[in-house]
Amino acid sequence: MSIRWTYAFADRPADRFERACDFWTAVTDTRLSEFRGESKEFTTLLPDGADPCAKVQGVASGEGGAHPDFAVTDVEDFVARAVRLGAAVAAGHEGWAVLRSPAGQLFCAVPWNGESVRPPVVHGSRLDQLCLDVPPSAFDAEVAFWTSLLDDWESAPGSLPEFHVLRPPYGLPLRLLLQRLDAERPASAHLDLACADIGATRVRHEQSGAVFVAEGRHWTVMRDPAGGLYCLTGRDPETGGLPRH
């Protein structure tokens, strides 16, 4: 398996970067790493007694969003394979690369540094999923791309017709959920948390500065203090699955 670890990246406007860091450390019970990058725009959320799987980036333009990082044993090989399957290289760096999926979703290939211990459930919730919001015209091709790229992940229809889920091998911390949008607009992504009790988690998040946006079938849409949308979902924080009824 070339993918040895996964990260969820919260991308937030640079002028709200500090607010994003304060919020996401509070709700995930983590601390910040040293800041990295030319403008100190990158930081990792460090849990106690486990390996990190979430990061925050301050972006110079736009409203941000989210993207996945795949930590792999051979970055060059992973990039070449992604390109053969339809991705494009958005930016090359020494030892890592930024790519763009066929629908336009950014993702990164980075070296694996031995991460193996998944962060624990915190106060009944866990950041464990990245949802890719895909325009209808690109949805089938995007599902095919991610299914082929992540060929040792379980790829299956989701709980509703507009969803498709990719579940990683045991031990990897981040699932992918593809959501077919109901209108044509650029691809984007947002973070999802699995919650044992959505209502209780919502209260904790609101106390840290988040605001309620909307309620769905088994999820609640929230906005963090930096303006980023994310979802609290009614999935088991241990397994990531929906409860059986």
Question: What descriptors fit this protein?
Answer:
8-stranded mixed sheet; 245 residues; alpha+beta; 4 helices; 40% strand
Molecular structure report:
- The protein has helices at 17-28, 75-84, 139-149, 198-207; strands spanning 3-13, 31-32, 42-46, 54-59, 65-72, 88-93, 96-100, 106-111, 125-134, 154-157, 163-167, 175-180, 188-195, 211-215, 219-223, 229-233.
- It has four helices and 16 strands.
- A hairpin with a 2-residue loop joins strand 6 and strand 7.
- The chain starts with a strand and ends in a 12-residue tail after the last strand.
- The strands form two sheets. It has an eight-stranded mixed beta sheet with strand order 2-3-4-1-5-8-7-6, covered by helices on one side.
Rg is: 17 Å
User: How large is the share of residues in beta strands?
Assistant: 35-45%
Distance between the termini: 34 Å
How much helix is in the residues? 10-25%
The number of strands is: 16
Biggest sheet character:
8 strands, mixed
Low-confidence stretches: none
The order of strands across the largest sheet is 2-3-4-1-5-8-7-6
Individual helix count: 4
